Amino acid sequence: MSSITELPPAPSDSGQPTGMLTLPGMPGVIDQVALAKLYGEPLFAMPQDLYIPPDALQVFLEAFEGPLDLLLYLIRKQNFNILDIPMAAVTRQYLVYVDEIRTTNLELAAEYLLMAAMLIEIKSRMLLPPKKMAGGQEAEDPRAELVRRLLEYEQIKLAAQKLNEIPQYGRDFLRAQVYVEQALQPRFPDVTVVDLQEAWRDIVKRAKLVQHHVISREELSVREHMSIVLRKLQGQKFVEFEHLFEPSRGMPVLVVTFIALLELSKEGLVDVTQAEAYAPIYVRLAYTPA
């Protein structure tokens, strides 16, 4: 039966003793409440240093890709002849590693335990007297199947390492991507009405310099001058705008030629282009699709 022990009174903040009762196995408490519990025990004050429980953090590095990888590592590290494996030494070292991973990863250890059982079986078969085969042939070495698997695994592992050394896209290098916008046909700046007006004023100014005093009435045809403009453009890549006019023939001919040029542009028979702003204006025959 448990008993309650009364401790001597302890002085309080006011100087008066304060009674305190404690249970067996529990620390004494003076008007305090436990802040937390650590391993089931109450904690009444914050620890002065960082305390990490032993099992708070466990790190397990899986350095091998399987039982064959571990066996090959043990054999190559100690320069054992793979065709004459010392089963006792290799099995002992193999089991040490298996015991370590069993405490942390039981599922991973199951695969290694299967190989451990195979190693023990091979060692036990080597201890037994060899059986004589029919025809007086010697029995096959119990290690032969294991050696064959190890040699095949080593070849595949070396081939995988060589493949891994080849530069891989996304790991060792990235593909450069550059987008270049290329139009199938050159695009020239659009000719505005103001540009045509300025070009027309220049032609009119030069036409005024050539004046004739002969008064005559002349029948002018827009269609005829449209044909004249098309003949001038025939076989020419570009013709400058002002070269389509003949100021010496007077103002009426210039007006009719200009109207003919506008009609041709309206019908899509000619293109009026300009390389850049304030540059000369050129006229060419429009391209018609085949």
Structural summary, described in words:
This protein is mainly α and 290 residues long. The protein is built from 7 helices and 9 strands; from the N terminus they run ββββββααααααβαββ. The chain has helices at residues 67-77, 87-102, 106-127, 144-165, 193-208, 222-233, 251-266, and strands at residues 5-6, 10-11, 17-18, 21-22, 36-38, 41-43, 239-240, 270-274, 281-285. The chain has a 3-stranded antiparallel beta sheet with strand order 7-9-8. Strands 1-4 form a two-stranded antiparallel ribbon. A hairpin with a 5-residue loop joins strand 2 (10-11) and strand 3 (17-18). Helix 2 runs antiparallel to helix 3 (106-127). The chain is elongated and about 140 Å long.
Helix content range of the residues, please? 25-40%
Shape type: elongated
The profile of the biggest β sheet is: 3 strands, antiparallel
Provide the spatial order of strands within the biggest beta sheet. Answer: 7-9-8
Tally of helical segments: 7
Cα separation of the termini = 114 Å
* Model regions low in confidence, pLDDT < 50 over at least 5 residues: 1-30
What letter string, H or E per element, gives the SSE order? EEEEEEHHHHHHEHEE
Annotation, overall tally of beta strands = 9
What Rg do the Cα atoms give? 52 Å
